Amino acid sequence: MNKINIALLGLGNVGRGVWEILQTNKEEIRERSGYDIEVSKILVRDINKRRDIDVPKGILTTEPEEIFNDESIKIVIEVIGGVDPAKDYMIKAMQSKKHVVTANKLAIATCGSELIKTAKEEEVRFCYEASVAGGIPIIHGLNESLTANKIEQIMGIINGTTNYILTKMYLDNMSFGEALKEAQEKGYAEADPTSDVDGYDAVYKLSILTYLAFGKKISVDSIYREGIRNIEAIDIEYAKEFGYVIKLLAIVKDVNNVLELRVHPTMVPARHPLASVNDSFNAIFIKGNAVGDLMMYGRGAGDLPTGSAVVGDIISILRNDTDPIFKLEGSKSGNLKQINSMENTKSGYYIRITVKDEPGVLGKISTILGQNNVSLLSVIQKGKGQEFVTLVFVTHKTLEGNIDKSIKDINLLSSVKKIENIIRVEKMEV
Amino acid sequence: MNKINIALLGLGNVGRGVWEILQTNKEEIRERSGYDIEVSKILVRDINKRRDIDVPKGILTTEPEEIFNDESIKIVIEVIGGVDPAKDYMIKAMQSKKHVVTANKLAIATCGSELIKTAKEEEVRFCYEASVAGGIPIIHGLNESLTANKIEQIMGIINGTTNYILTKMYLDNMSFGEALKEAQEKGYAEADPTSDVDGYDAVYKLSILTYLAFGKKISVDSIYREGIRNIEAIDIEYAKEFGYVIKLLAIVKDVNNVLELRVHPTMVPARHPLASVNDSFNAIFIKGNAVGDLMMYGRGAGDLPTGSAVVGDIISILRNDTDPIFKLEGSKSGNLKQINSMENTKSGYYIRITVKDEPGVLGKISTILGQNNVSLLSVIQKGKGQEFVTLVFVTHKTLEGNIDKSIKDINLLSSVKKIENIIRVEKMEV
Fold first, then answer.
1. Which residues, other chains included, contact A209 with Cβ-Cβ below 8 Å and sequence gap of 6+?
2. Are residues A98 and A159 in the same domain?
3. What is the pLDDT of residue A335?
4. Residue A169 falls in which region: left (phi positive, over 0), alpha (psi -120 to 50) or beta
5. Coil, helix or strand for A356?
6. Quick one: residue A154, left, alpha or beta (phi over 0 = left, psi -120 to 50 = alpha)?
7. Which of A71, A234, B119, B191 has the most neighbouring CB atoms within 10 Å?
8. Strand bridging mode A224-225 / A258-269
9. From the candidates A37, A294, A316, which should be mutated to test the interface with B, based on the most B CB atoms within 10 A?
10. How many other C-beta atoms lie within 10 A of the C-beta of residue A85?
11. Is residue A326 part of a domain?
12. Are residues A17 and A55 in the same domain?
């Protein structure tokens, strides 16, 4: 049996998951890779920190050079996260002719092409299945299984924190604040939940998926981003009534060779598979021009699921599965794919408005929508004989620009108190 | 740009899908494979048959030897189906040092190991992603992405015909007969629907999945098989009432190193992702000890989805992605995994019984269940003041043997007219 030494950079959540899988599934991994894998060094910040896993102290080190200079180490697993110093470590590892496996979404999203370029130059493997959607094999899927397809669009629930919160709001009728608090208590949300709740995490992951599926490198700043802070319990209730579920979707669509990219709350039909993705699960829904609809669902984070992807990449490297690197280098960017501006995107829209309970309000608003080419699918008015009443409109698919113009005009009506919320609706036609 | 010649055996549904994808996505395929792929020969039975695709007549042939003896042909795509003559053709192709890609579920299920053995001996590639679940990349998933896992169980909706029928019964309240008729009219079911409706198709696919996930070759005859013919509209209604959906599930579970394999209708919680898999879509739900729950959903059949998998395999071969053949040769069969008998499997059970509307019937039946260690979850009796009434029981998870014994005793009660139906219930605990 061949033996091979690998090193871990970092021993946090994912690092521990990788360690555990290498121990627990040693037999399977040996059979499938053809190698006895030994973790010979682990880079940590504090050798004496108390850890709840059984790692021999002798392999811990605080010196990255010990790893880069050790010729017996063939693969380096980067599970520190973030850009500094992880990116430099990965480059140094590759310059030392070591293959690299990473789970680092931030580094891939911001410096992915530099890392891939280094791998090509140094003729080593660079794998990052674990950087998007945890254990879900989406990168293998796009790079190796769906290669016969033109990808038309990808819609993903790719942030577990926000999905957990929205699930609690939907299934348990919690308010946003209550659901966030529970998520924090259970470890699904950080003390500062901004990155998740405001959609930054989803934007990073979407940029990686876009690069893989369309070959185009997108600056994360050019992606429209709207988190879930403005979703109220009442919106969840109305969605239920219309037969929809609210999810935070990351969307990339190829519309006549122009890419639309956006992250925002979206109403999804309750019968659609994406609607059944609950708690901290993730799902990525792809439309390819040959395969049609394809969805991958699973745990998007966590020590073991992410570790599953990391170790899967290690096995891939050991088996010499070809790395289709040449594909990832923007192989399709020849067809210049401009990013669509939001006003040119099309959606259905849910619009909740508080108005004075006066004659003709509904008519005025409907008229404005009609004048702006917005056609109505549903309307709900539940009058309670009070000064103000809530009007809820759901429109047919229309240009966001038409909605923007309608909203401007609606806001000028004296009977309109406030446009409380606007949520995009995806009818998910097959 | 490198050029390569390939040949198709067959030009039916899938063959046409492969042809179409090779034309439509020519650019993408060229970029991703590094080759200009030309179909230089196609084996058909009737050269002059009218076809609705644009295939040059010059490449059609009725002589398989023209393909096997043509040294310029490097890959042979078998899309005839069935065992004879497809299996022999594939072996001849491999003996002629050609790689083989197939969509042939029957051949893989019954002669898979012989075909794989031939590939190893001849040192050529043998790929069959398209043979299970159409375009869903389950074989790549199991062989390449989930390699760090011990697979614990797989549950699949892997027959589109029965899923279409059950969806119509559920969403449109049709009877089995009505739904079957509509399926036949729309081309989702054959004139003789036996293979699909009675579960044979699902059994073949399950045996392939089992071989891949557990390394154990299972005779299709040893798989418990129960189709959907006995599902009545009333069962669908009761399922709805309990919050369940009825699906035909193919199940393989590793229970303490013993494999359970079965295909049968199953009640699935309406909120579970498997429950949202509708119409002719397929889904495969995997539990791995690292990745946790993972589901792949998509089109399990059809010219383009199946073609997507075939062409994906062609690209794989051209890119030299290593074929983990060594894994598939029952690499784990060292741990002798006996097949569990059905009486040792555990499930919840839905039991619908017609009884005389007499005092004490419910009590007697409940007592019998209790005596056989079957604990009740729910009971519904909707009395209508008639001679007979329907009792519906849903049990907690119990051994099938306990249910068998209970049914024997219940049948002896004079007040029991008929045990109308028994359907297994999977609560899908995470």
1. A132, A138, A142, A154, A156, A158, A250, A252, A284
2. no
3. 60
4. alpha
5. strand
6. beta
7. B119
8. parallel
9. A294
10. 12
11. no
12. yes
Decide the pairing of beta strands A99-102 and A126-127: parallel
In a domain, residue B337? The reply is no
State yes or no: pLDDT of B330 exceeds 70: no
Contact B136 A316 (CB under 8 A): no
Q: Which of B136, B144, B283 comes nearest A140 by C-beta?
A: B144
Does the beta-carbon distance from B147 to A291 stay under 8 Å? Answer: no
Domain count, chain A: 3
- Kindly state whether residue A147 falls inside one of the protein's structural domains: yes
Q: Is A278 near chain B, with CB under 8 Å?
A: yes
pLDDT-derived band at B393, boundaries 50, 70, 90: very high
Percent with pLDDT over 70 in chain B: 96
* Average pLDDT of the segment spanning A21-41: 93
* pLDDT of the residue at B319: 86
CA-to-CA distance for A74 and A71, rounded, in angstroms? 7
Secondary structure class of B340 (helix, strand, coil): coil
Q: pLDDT digit string (tens) for B150-163?
A: 999 999 999 999 99
CA B321, CA B31: separation in Å to the nearest integer?
15
Q: Is position A190 annotated in a ligand binding site?
A: yes
Residue A259 C-alpha, separation from nearest chain B C-alpha, in angstroms: 17
Is the domain of A124 the same as that of A144? no
Kindly list the residues from chain A whose CB atom is less than 8 angstroms away from the CB atom of residue B312: 144-148
CB contact under 8 A, B28 and A319: no
**Amino acid at position A367, single letter:** T
B288 CB-contact burial (10 Å; exposed 0-12 / middle 13-18 / buried 19+) = buried
Tokens, residue B131: 């043979």
Residue A213 contacts residue A328 (beta carbons within 8 Å)? no
Quick check: is B368 in a domain? yes
Which residue in this structure is represented by tokens 């992606």?
A223
Task: Report which DSSP code applies to A41.
Answer: E
Q: Pseudo-torsion of CA B326, B330, B334, B340, nearest 10°? A: 160
Between CA B122 and CA B136 the distance in angstroms is 28
Give me A220's structure tokens.
């994360």
Residue ranges for the known binding site of B for L-homoserine are 190
Looking at the structure, do residues A189 and A260 belong to the same domain, yes or no? yes
pLDDT at A383: 77
Distance separating alpha carbons of residues A15 and A80, to the nearest angstrom = 8
pLDDT tens sequence across B223-240 = 999 999 999 999 999 999
CB contact under 8 A, B28 and A150: yes
Band of the pLDDT at B384, cuts 50, 70, 90?
confident
Q: Which residues of B are annotated as a binding site for NADPH?
A: 105
Q: Are A376 and A366 in contact (CB under 8 A)?
A: yes
CA B293 from chain center: how many Å?
A: 18
Nearest-CA distance from B67 to chain A in Å?
24
Print burial letters for B220-240: b (CB count within 10 Å at least 16), e (below 16): beebbbbbbbebebebbebbe
The verdict on B2 touching A (C-beta cutoff 8 Å) is no
Say if residue B65 is exposed, middle or buried (CB neighbours under 10 Å; 0-12, 13-18, 19+). exposed
Q: Domain residues for A221?
A: 138-299
Shared-domain flag, residues A290 and A145: yes
Based on the domain organization, do B29 and B114 belong to the same domain? yes
Longest dimension (CA), chain B: 83
> Is the CB of A290 less than 8 angstroms away from the CB of B311?
yes
pLDDT of residue A336: 53
